[in-house]
User: Which sequence fits this backbone?
């Protein structure tokens, strides 16, 4: 009994949520109609919470590449690369990612979560210090914990606070790894990367940037926040994922440091996980090619993002600090957020509901993620739904 | 150099608003069980303590802190290594 007692609080919270509404955490997608529309509870619903930024999940070239790989190489690798060997596609994908970023080395991981876990836990260890932005993703926190290094948080995007903490470290700075995200996943704001990179250079620390939400979204070539900010040379390690702009699953890290090739041998999340299956590798390679050769996808994404951000702002919603494909609509009370989510869902609009402690400031929010595949009409219908639910709940 | 005895009153001052009315804080007061601090409040508390004592408090120590006395001892050690 004692072992399982800890679940009681969780069970109570889930029960009270279920009594108030449709359970937002158990939405079942019965059929996908497109990257931006699905059938849920028998009705077509606009998907505005998918992270499918470039809308490539139904791209014919990606699908064909994946289907061909399944036919030629089977459904899975059934083991890790260390034990079962590399498939030729793993090596090709690593080579293409390294080339895309202009870096010497790339390691591919089975998920984005595992990429952070595997890289951070291998790079830092007991005696080292990791300084993380307070709003970093759970995978970064978990990687830090796994590393055994000393972990210090700095206030979100507060470079004065980071400077103070680096100064306190003094001679330990060469053993310090700073971690930030290109685009923060909850509020959609950019890292203050020019300043962070300057501090990194001034104090002689290392810098790891998670570009999970900024790959394909920011930068002239879609390389992310470090490209946009013009500080790629100062970022030692770039981590990213295939599960957003590239429409699949998996993660990676690129770097010019030769140790990157050795990280594989020191990374338990790399060694002890089955490697990416051939279809995922193939569709990711095809999607990377689309990302590289079709900058118009990024333009379309930003047009849609700006349209939704401006419209919601005009409607009086409290939003994240800047327009981006992640648009956070912020609420004070969890009850209001749950009611609003249900109102949108009843109007066939699906967004992500985020409650504390997953939110940055203890508030609650509805998180919209925009896709290049959304039509202007879909963006307008999302806004109309927000407007009508607001009126209904305020009356 | 701040010592355990001088750190404690400052901790009481910072934590008093989290206590119930009339609750007397002591070294044995537990942060979670007695003050109902959840993970978010603990993170806010860390930031406040870092400002007050001009130190960086590693997240790693949080799991070792159960009482106000534990916190004071950890802060004393961090101050020694400043």
Assistant:
């Amino acid at each position: 009994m004692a072992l399982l007692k800890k679940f009681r609080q969780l069970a109570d919270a889930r029960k009270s949520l279920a009594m108030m509404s449709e359970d937002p955490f158990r939405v079942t997608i019965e059929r996908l109609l497109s990257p931006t529309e699905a059938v849920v509870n028998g009705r077509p619903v606009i998907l505005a919470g998918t992270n499918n930024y470039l809308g490539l999940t139904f791209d014919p070239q990606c699908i064909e590449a994946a289907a061909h790989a399944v036919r030629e190489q089977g459904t899975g690798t059934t083991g890790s690369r260390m034990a079962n060997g590399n498939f030729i596609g793993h090596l090709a994908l690593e080579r293409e990612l390294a080339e895309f970023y202009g870096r010497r080395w790339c390691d591919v991981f089975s998920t984005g979560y595992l990429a952070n876990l595997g890289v951070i836990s291998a790079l830092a260890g007991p005696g080292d210090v990791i300084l993380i932005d307070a709003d970093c993703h759970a995978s970064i926190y978990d990687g830090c914990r796994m590393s055994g290094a000393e972990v210090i948080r700095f206030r979100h995007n507060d470079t004065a606070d980071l400077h103070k903490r680096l100064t306190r470290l003094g001679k330990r700075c060469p053993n310090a790894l700073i971690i930030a995200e290109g685009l923060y996943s909850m509020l959609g704001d950019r890292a203050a990367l020019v300043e962070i990179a300057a501090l990194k250079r001034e104090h002689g620390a290392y810098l790891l940037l998670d570009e999970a939400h900024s790959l394909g979204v920011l930068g002239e070539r879609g390389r992310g926040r470090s490209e946009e900010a013009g500080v790629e040379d100062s970022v030692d390690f770039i981590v990213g994922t295939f599960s957003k702009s590239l429409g699949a699953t998996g993660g990676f890290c690129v770097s010019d440091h030769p140790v990157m090739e050795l990280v594989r041998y020191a990374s338990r999340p790399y060694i002890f996980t089955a490697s990416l299956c051939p279809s995922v590798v193939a569709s990711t390679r095809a999607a990377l090619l689309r990302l590289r050769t079709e900058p118009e996808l990024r333009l379309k994404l930003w047009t849609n993002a700006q349209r939704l951000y401006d419209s919601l702002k005009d409607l009086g919603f409290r939003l994240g600090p800047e327009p981006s494909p992640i648009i956070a609509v912020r609420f004070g009370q969890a009850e209001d957020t749950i009611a609003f989510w249900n109102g949108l869902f009843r109007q066939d609009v699906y967004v992500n509901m985020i409650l504390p402690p997953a939110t940055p400031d203890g508030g609650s929010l509805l998180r919209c993620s925009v896709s290049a595949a959304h039509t202007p009409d879909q963006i307008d219908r999302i806004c109309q739904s927000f407007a009508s639910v607001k009126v209904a709940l305020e009356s | 150099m701040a010592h355990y005895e001088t750190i404690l009153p400052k901790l009481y001052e910072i934590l008093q608003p989290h206590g119930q009315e009339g609750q007397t804080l002591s070294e044995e007061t537990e942060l979670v069980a007695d003050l109902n601090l959840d993970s978010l409040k603990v993170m806010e508390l860390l930031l406040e303590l870092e400002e007050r004592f001009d130190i960086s408090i590693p997240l790693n120590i949080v799991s070792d802190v159960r009482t106000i006395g534990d916190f004071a001892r950890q802060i004393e050690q961090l101050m020694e290594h400043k």
Observations:
- Chain A has a mean pLDDT of 96.
- Chain A touches chain B at residues 134, 144, 150-153, 155, 165, 168-169, 356-357, 362 (CB under 8 Å).
